[in-house]
Amino acid sequence: MKEYLKKSKYFVLVVSVLEITTVFLMFLFYYLNVSDFQSYISVEGLFYVLIAFVAFDILTFLYLLFRFLKIRYKNNISTESLFGKNVQSAIEYADLMIAVVNDSKDVIWINERFNQLDKSILDQKITDIYPELKGLDDSESQQNKVITVVIKDRVFSARFIKNANVYLFKDITDYTTLLNISREQALVLGIIMIDNYNDLKEDDERASDIMAKVRIKILDYFKQNGVLLRKYSNDSYYAICNYHSLKKMEDNKFEILDEIKALGDDDALNPTLSIGFAHDVSEVFKLNEMANSAIDIAISRGGDQVVVAQYGHDLKFFGGRSESFEKNNRVKLRVLCESLKALIKDSKNVYIMGHKDMDLDSIGSCLGAKALCEGFGVPSKIIFDPKLADRNTRYAVTTTFTRQEFNEKFILPKDALAKFTAKTLLICCDFHKPSLAMSEEVLNVADKVVVIDHHRRSEEFIENPIFTEIDPSASSASELVAELIGYSSNNPKIKIPEDYATIMLAGIFLDTNFYKSPVCGIRTFEASMILKENGADNNRADEFLKDDYEEHLLISKIISTIKTPYVGVVYCLGPNDDIIDGDTLSKAANECISMKGINASFIIGKVGDKKIKISARSDGMINVQLLMEKMGGGGHYNMAAMVFDSSRISEIESLLLETLRDHLEEAKTFKKQGD
């Protein structure tokens, strides 16, 4: 219809121009008597010509009107006439709306159902009226593609049949409404735990008062949000609610976290919660399993946060702005060491592996784990590839061990792969993400895996480890292993070789920036004391971390690019054309954070042809792990990093600034009102 009107418009325009031009010229020639024109035609003749043009126009108009009505009648043919009575009944039963279009997507026919709802679509381009339909591809491979479109407050699923140039619309309003109601009322299970309950349960009037306030606040908050609570232990609650209640709490960012922290009266009595929720699966046992996994992740990441697990989707994290409080439970350490001892003794041999770009803390914790295996009399080797270790680690290993000692204690990943059996135990130190393993192939063939790490747990995690010790409150992995050795009940006591202890001490030096980091606590000094008792050499440990002259110049050059996007936050950029060791970026970040007035520092530099790394440090006022996690990385509260597959530092700089803009306030350490 639209095409016919367009052609008719052009036809009328051309004829009108020709008629006007002809009449004008004839009257002009007559008036001027050009070439004795008056002798050929009289005035009456001119009027006859004019009358002829008028008659022609009337006939043309009638013809065009007749054609228009004929086409209109053809387009308005009923569904019954077009498809047959039985097909019409089927279409009416299915409540289908049909729109036929031409090659330009102009609507040339709609059925009665469509006409009742929106007849204005006729002669219009359908994708202009309903832009969502542009998502229906014309290619043959997309013939079964369905999209959702809203027409006059009704919801339809739409499909395009290319061969017939037909759009089919199925009314799914009732189904969508029921689905939304079902989703809103879907069962959600949760677990709430008071992180530092042991500190608050002491028979002390102040602690008792805070604990009472904590319980009242928990009950009030969840009651207001429609959550049913049932206490199943002194520090834990089961939570049952629907998705509507969970969404309400997500929208307010689980403000209960900050409200609970505000009840504390000082740093020693600062209560926090860990919460895990699970939803979007109908099996109650599966929901319970997911909720338990979510609370485990929340606790292993340091507490003071909520982890929401939706079946088949990525985990959601809320909170996590407080630094992990220090735990010093020697009984727990002995129990853990006994469990690890049983696993090691039950193995034929043990391989120990750190992360890619192995640093001194990673190699130190691996050597500590090897000391454990030697103390239990089980053969062990450290999986080590010099190409996947930083400069200081290579220097420490090559200057500490002779070639013969190196061959006895270390093994290449490819050689370890060939020697794995069902009785082989793999101990992973200083990492828990499979993608960070020095060799993912080794990780994939291991049947029994132990994880020892001090980084906050992320969603990516080694699958089904048989033993896990993740403690974000520890300063380093070397500290964790030193504690396991120092507080083990083995008789005689496990001895750490002096060389091992020295490298482990260097690892603690590295991760605490020589005890300057806020993460450094009593446990750190106790672990260092254990290493000193085993002969750790301070001077040699310090030597492993010293910069050479060229590295010192490079660090100074990087720091000279310092920029301050926010008060207390700085970042520096490495040279665009130089590949820098990742350890150098870490040292530059440590150098920045040691400056007065700086709460967080970020160093960006190229660590490969198409690899760019951000090394982040904090003085405890800002959770850099949370910021790096938003960018896809992770780490510790005060130390974190991320490696990108990119070759342009400017791109990563823009991404960092965007992350700081969106999440810096969220990453700032919680402070009570009035502090």
SS strand fraction: 15-25%
Helix content: 40-55%
- The number of helices is 26
N-end to C-end Cα span = 74 Å
Structure class: alpha/beta
Could you tell me the mean pLDDT?
Answer: 84
Q: Record the strand order, biggest sheet.
A: 7-8-6-9-10-11
Low-confidence stretches: 671-675
Strand count, sense and barrel status of the largest sheet are: 6 strands, mixed
What are its keywords?
675 residues; alpha/beta; six-stranded mixed sheet; 23 strands; elongated; disordered C terminus
Give me the secondary-structure topology.
Blueprint lengths: L1 H31 L10 H33 L3 H5 L1 H10 L1 E6 L5 E4 L1 H7 L7 H4 L17 E5 L2 E8 L4 E6 L1 H12 L2 E8 L2 H4 L4 H20 L3 E6 L2 E7 H9 L4 H6 L11 E7 L4 H17 L4 E6 L5 E4 L10 H16 L3 E5 L6 H16 L4 E4 L7 H10 L2 H7 E2 L1 H5 L6 E6 L10 H6 L2 E6 L13 E4 L6 H10 L11 H15 L9 H12 L4 H8 L3 H11 L3 E4 L2 E5 L8 H12 L6 E9 L2 E8 L5 H7 L3 E2 L3 E7 L3 H19 L8
Parallel strand pairs: 9-10, 12-13, 12-15, 13-14, 15-16, 16-17, 19-20
Antiparallel strand pairs: 1-2, 1-5, 3-4, 4-5, 6-8, 6-9, 7-8, 10-11, 18-19, 20-21, 21-23, 22-23
Helix pairs in contact: 1-2, 14-19, 14-20, 19-20, 19-21, 20-21, 20-22, 23-24, 25-26
